[in-house]
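Intended use. Records like the one below are meant for learning the mapping from a protein sequence to its folded structure. Do not use them to infer anything beyond what is encoded.
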Amino acid sequence: MSFLDPEREVLERLLPGLDAALAAHPLAELERRGSPALAAFREAKGPGLLVPGDHSGVGASPLEAVRLQRAVGARCPSLAVATTMHHFSVAGLVEATRHGAGFAWMLLEAVVGDRLLLASGFAEGRTGQSVLRPAITAERRGDHVVLNGSKKPCSLAHSMDVLTASVTMTDADGTERLAVAIVPARTEGVSVRPFWSNTVLAGAESEEVVLTEVTLDPQMVVATDVTAGSALDSLHIAGFLWFELLMTAGYLGTASALVERALLRGGGTAGDRALLVTELDAAMLAVEAVAREMGERAEWGEPLLVRALTARYAAQDAIARATPVALGMLGGMSFIGSTAGTYLASAATGLAFHPPSRGRTAEALCAALDGQALRVG
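Structure written out for the chain above:
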């Protein structure tokens, strides 16, 4: 068994042909704006990965999904980031059906049949602000709900067919509650502005999506009982679980691609090479443990999310330790002759920038371990 063989076996079994399609392109081509990776993902029926089998989807288990995502991240970091947001949105729709959102099944079947891509307007990207405080507002006006605001960065900004966005709605008593809005990309008032200036992960299409007086049927907005600073409900716990595990697996895949290059080159000592594999595989085993528990439990609670966050932060540390060692093992001539190694090392650090940040979560994690409700800020 070679490094990453188990993950690539899952990828080939569930999305046949995608790994080969990605491997046929140079890394630089996959990671640029206008990358062919998203088209390959659609062709392999990737949009339906997390749609249950009884609705014609692939019906991947959480364990299969994280292994597959590591394999994707090893071939194309930008695709791993972008598709994590799609899968996160699909998983949210699956969960929304448990809250009476009947339209969600129709959309899920369209995701499979039409291979739709869903962008996620879940709140992030604003320094010092709560992840549960969206920049998009929803206002009831007669028989409609009107959205205003923007999401930046928003992956899949150019390729999305539907935007699923977290929004704030104000009750009659002035209380702000969170809701999830389903917005077709061609809805009047939806536009895209340039935002992502870095060449790293440019293929994820992470730009600003702007909503200006976007009018929706109220059935396209799923209300929750969550307010800023309140305990999480089941919908948000499920969303955080999928997001943290899939994103972590994808970035572990990116770091693994760098380590794989070092292993193939044979640099350093056997102890050095074994250390690299141990770092990343141990982190992945923690992710898999949480994913396996998700597949075995009918209900997902806060303790499981605490373990997911623990696995995610441990993976950040493993990546930080492994990537400079792998770069060193590749040697100076590799550094001079190709940007691939430095690109992968840089891209793998991106996990640290996704919400919720370790600094903002540390106190909440400690409180949760002391028996208090988990509050993610």
